[in-house]
Recover the amino acids of this structure.
């Protein structure tokens, strides 16, 4: 039997091919039959360019319907889809391209030449924000029927890179089973139906916007209003026609800071979902008071898709991520010994289920280190179950900053800063921020007599790091606090600079 993700999602709209799949802000409509035809054209185009099952297709392009058709086309052709954040610099791209060895790379037209010079054997095609470029033209030329390449549940559908606390980024290998099981479970858990209209404002190079939002919507056969990005004017323009929205907490704090967020504006809405970063209980309550809607918070990861969710019916508890999803097992263990802990105690969150990835791409050591022998994945998040079975995430054992729902690995930023002349060392931390939840801040020790400025460091980082990773502030310190083992005590730095972005109480929750 064909276990392909697309074959499973197709059940959501079979017999309803005339229903609207997607609408863009200029009012253009794509129906499910267009999704079938256009993804078939991309699948054929990929095969014509030599794609064979299991080959990677790396894609770094702006959000557009064509980008989605390329994604589904890749899945249908048996390829492995590898989406990349559009903010990544060419220097950052280098690593992904050499590690994943894609057969095809699709990038913005202005990057084609530079990427061609970097990959020896790959075909490089273009796609712009309007969905135009050599990739789209090749798909036009390949239009026609396509017989999907059958896949088994364990075959790879996608690789998404996620950085580690040490060393380079790791490619999380996601199978057809991982993606299909998560989409089908979420469709039921969140009561998604063909009647739903999803307001889609997320980027589509991460799990949240691509899998949690898009796959789940398609599994339900619903339609979506596809915004190019999160933009408050667009949100308030289209909210009155939507029924569901998914976002990171920053979306909700920005909406709350806007007077257009009223009960009338959300009268047509059925469900607001938050994830990717902690939703502050204040935000949860303020949203409830203002709109009458209780945001449903859930918990996921690149490696696992969605793990836990507050219930659709029943109490949604602020400060928690709800219950393990059907089919997903979650346990709390002692981080050192791995021994399961009793209810109420804080420990490592471990996850097992059909949603959990197959391992890290060409990295068996890391894979082995992050799984227990009985198949549980060690998430690096610390949590606790309460007496009613709700899971709360209380911290992270991994050194990671989550800024506006995007992960930043301090080590990567520290390495870039430490390499600069005049810098002795640095420590990068996350500091509470009213808009991004956490903001990246660098504490830098300069060499005696060195005059390197904040500006000079920022300029040097521009070439190396995507904008969202760059520190919002660089603070010069005399020395970094260390414990008796010589380890930098980041908790002391976080405490010291806790109020760096604090606002007067009247402004709390407003966008900066
Ligand atoms: C943009 N910038 C950010 C940033 N996004 N800086 C820190 N953190 C971010 N998240 C930079 C810009 O490059 C710019 O830099 C400056 O900040 C101001 O930009 P902006 O106009 O405010 O940014 P905006 O375009 O509004 O984007 C902010 C955002 C966006 C929050 C809307 O980042 C976003 O959509 N985030 C969602 C990310 C997401 O999908 N995460 C899910 C991961 S999956 P400069 O230097 O040019 O001024 C996952 C699993 C799970 O985690 O559970 O879901
Ligand atoms: P990523 O590697 O980008 O997939 O990020 C996954 C991480 O985001 C998780 O390991 C958590 O630390 C965090 N995360 C996701 N959802 C939530 C949530 N609802 N509350 C707190 N943290 C979350």
């Amino acid at each position: 039997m064909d276990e392909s993700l697309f074959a499973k999602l197709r059940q959501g709209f079979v017999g309803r091919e005339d229903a609207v799949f997607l609408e863009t802000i200029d009012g253009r409509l794509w129906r499910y039959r267009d999704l079938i035809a256009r993804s078939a054209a991309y699948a054929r185009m990929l095969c014509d360019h030599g794609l064979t099952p299991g080959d990677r297709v790396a894609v770094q392009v702006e959000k557009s319907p064509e980008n989605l058709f390329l994604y589904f086309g890749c899945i249908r052709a048996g390829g492995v889809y590898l989406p990349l954040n559009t903010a990544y610099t060419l220097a950052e791209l280098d690593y992904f391209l050499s590690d994943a060895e894609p057969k095809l790379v699709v990038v913005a037209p202005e990057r084609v030449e530079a990427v061609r010079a970097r990959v020896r054997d790959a075909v490089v095609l273009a796609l712009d924000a309007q969905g135009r470029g050599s990739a789209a033209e090749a798909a036009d030329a390949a239009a026609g029927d396509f017989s999907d390449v059958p896949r088994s549940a364990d075959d790879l559908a996608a690789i998404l890179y996620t950085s580690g606390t040490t060393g380079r980024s790791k490619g999380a290998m996601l199978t057809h089973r991982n993606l299909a099981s998560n989409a089908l479970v979420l469709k039921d858990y969140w009561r998604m139906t063909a009647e739903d209209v999803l307001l889609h404002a997320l980027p589509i190079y991460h799990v949240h916007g691509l899998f949690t939002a898009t796959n789940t919507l398609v599994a339900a056969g619903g339609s979506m209003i596809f915004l190019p990005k999160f933009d408050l004017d667009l949100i308030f323009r289209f909210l009155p026609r939507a029924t569901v929205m998914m976002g990171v907490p920053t979306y909700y704090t920005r909406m709350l800071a806007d007077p257009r967020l009223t009960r009338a504006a959300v009268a047509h809405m059925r469900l607001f979902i938050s994830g990717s970063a902690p939703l502050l209980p204040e935000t949860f309550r303020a949203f409830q008071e203002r709109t009458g809607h209780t945001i449903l918070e859930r918990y996921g990861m690149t490696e696992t898709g969605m793990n836990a969710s507050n219930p659709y019916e029943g109490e949604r508890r602020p400060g928690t991520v709800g219950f393990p999803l059907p089919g997903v097992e979650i346990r709390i263990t002692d981080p050192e010994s791995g021994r399961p802990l009793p209810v109420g105690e804080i420990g490592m969150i471990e996850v097992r289920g059909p949603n959990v990835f197959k391992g890290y791409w060409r990295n068996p050591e890391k894979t082995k280190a992050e799984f227990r022998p009985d198949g549980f994945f060690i998430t690096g998040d610390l949590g606790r179950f309460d007496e009613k079975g709700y899971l709360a995430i209380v911290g992270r054992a991994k050194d990671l900053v989550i800024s506006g729902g995007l992960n930043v690995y301090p080590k990567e930023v520290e390495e870039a800063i430490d390499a600069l002349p005049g810098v002795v060392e640095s420590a990068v931390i996350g500091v509470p921020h009213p808009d991004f939840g956490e903001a990246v801040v660098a504490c830098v020790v300069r060499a005696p007599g060195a005059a390197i400025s904040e500006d000079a460091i920022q300029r040097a980082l521009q070439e190396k790091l995507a904008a969202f990773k760059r520190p919002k502030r660089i603070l010069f310190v005399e020395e970094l606090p260390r414990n008796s083992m010589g380890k930098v005590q980041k908790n002391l730095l976080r405490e010291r600079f806790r109020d760096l972005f604090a606002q007067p109480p009247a402004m709390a929750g407003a966008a900066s």
Notes: The pocket of malonyl-coenzyme A (ligand 1) is lined by residues 202-203, 206-209, 229-230, 248, 250, 275-276, 300-302, 403-406, 436, 467-468 (CB under 6 Å).
